[in-house]
Q: What sequence folds into this?
């Protein structure tokens, strides 16, 4: 592994940091998050047009920049530093890689170039709030997380040769505004059910919502990470798998797991960027805030707390970079992404909590910028964690404690309790 970044990678970070520093102050972030789409559309078009951000990891054949997970993770670190409200994760990290991996050539040609250009946005729809499970981050993704043939979840069926979707999903990232929905659904009876991924265009050529599709933005603690409830009532969809699989959903679960490895690295880098920014703000504040006639940053107790946070952020950054490198390699490292994400979420949670504390009474007001980071830390772990399950799954995949139970936690294995204790469950 070469830990040095290339000139191109450094330029991506520099350019993005400079632009976001001008356009993403705390007030601008709040204003963008409270718009109907949940992000600043003008800024998103600028990021797409000038920097090619949504197509950073897509091949040049489809209008992308032809980069890899490392460049995408570095970009996510900068967007995390600014707490940028944007459909980057849903579009570039979750949906586009799945379309690239599973879509037919006609589907790729129709969807990927406008996604890379920022003309369309996309997201992944997983029922039951099981996003982390679907991406194989907190458990094996070969279970009933998409419905399992039972009632509930999202079901897919063929009517006159066309696919139709019925069901609902909550906690869908940018689900209220995304133009393309990549929907995880089950088809077939209970005994022979299998998981499929299908693409749904949210609006028709006239701009009207697709019949049978109802999307409602949900209230979330973290406004910068908008989520929605998506309801599908016999909505037409296109199967994302060239020729239909002969009863085997292995290609779908494998694609989801590969996407999960990259997504974990990108989300870890994003959390590291947020933690680093929160720590920098806190360090600047303790240098200026005086108590007993001297800056509170001169007190040894405060210095020790900040030093611990600095070490945690640097360790999380190293883990995130390694996970991105592993995701882009010919041989992925089992569990690297999940471990990096766990480390980063834990670091962000610690830094955000200390930022509130060290800003004193000012930091406890909801209007203070420290709460933007605190809310991001709390909501990301609810959406993608919890941390102890990320670590337990990584340990299981690496074979550290023997075979795990059917639920991916080691519950049926004698070493399961030991494994959970060792990883902090």
A:
């Amino acid at each position: 592994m070469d830990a040095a970044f290339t000139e191109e990678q450094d330029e991506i970070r520099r350019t993005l940091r400079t632009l976001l520093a001008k356009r993403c102050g705390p007030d601008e972030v709040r204003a963008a998050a409270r718009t109907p789409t949940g992000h600043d559309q003008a800024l998103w078009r600028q990021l797409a047009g000038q920097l090619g951000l949504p197509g950073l990891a897509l091949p040049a054949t489809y209008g992308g920049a032809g980069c890899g997970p490392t460049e995408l993770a570095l970009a996510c670190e900068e967007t995390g530093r600014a707490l940028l409200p944007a459909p980057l994760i849903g579009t570039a990290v979750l949906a586009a890689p799945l379309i690239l991996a599973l879509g037919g050539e006609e589907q790729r040609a129709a969807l990927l170039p406008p996604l890379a250009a920022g003309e369309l946005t996309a997201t992944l729809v997983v029922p039951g709030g099981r996003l982390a499970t679907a991406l194989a981050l907190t458990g094996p993704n070969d279970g009933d997380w998409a419905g399992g043939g039972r009632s509930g979840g999202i079901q897919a069926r063929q009517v006159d040769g066309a696919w139709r979707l019925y069901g609902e999903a909550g906690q869908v990232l940018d689900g209220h505004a995304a133009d393309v929905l990549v929907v995880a659904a089950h088809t077939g009876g209970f005994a022979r059910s299998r998981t499929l991924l299908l693409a749904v265009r949210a609006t028709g050529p006239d701009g009207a919502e697709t019949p049978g599709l109802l999307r409602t933005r949900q209230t979330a603690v973290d406004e910068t990470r908008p989520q929605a409830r998506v309801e599908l009532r016999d909505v037409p969809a296109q199967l994302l798998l060239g020729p239909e699989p002969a009863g085997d959903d292995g290609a779908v679960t494998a694609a989801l797991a590969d996407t999960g490895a990259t997504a974990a690295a990108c989300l870890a880098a994003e959390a590291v960027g947020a933690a680093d920014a929160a720590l920098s703000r806190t360090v600047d504040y303790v240098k200026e805030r005086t108590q007993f006639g001297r800056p509170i940053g001169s007190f040894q107790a405060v210095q020790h707390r900040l030093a611990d946070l600095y070490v945690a952020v640097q360790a999380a950054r190293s883990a995130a970079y390694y996970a991105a490198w592993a995701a882009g390699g010919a041989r992925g490292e089992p569990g690297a992404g999940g471990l990096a994400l766990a480390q980063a979420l834990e670091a962000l949670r610690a830094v955000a909590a200390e930022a509130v504390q060290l800003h004193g009474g000012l930091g406890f007001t909801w209007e203070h910028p420290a709460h933007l980071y605190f809310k991001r830390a709390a909501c990301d772990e609810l959406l993608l964690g919890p941390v102890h399950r990320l670590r337990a799954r990584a340990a299981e995949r690496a074979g550290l404690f023997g075979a795990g139970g059917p639920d991916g936690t080691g519950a049926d294995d004698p070493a399961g309790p030991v494994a959970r204790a060792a990883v902090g469950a």
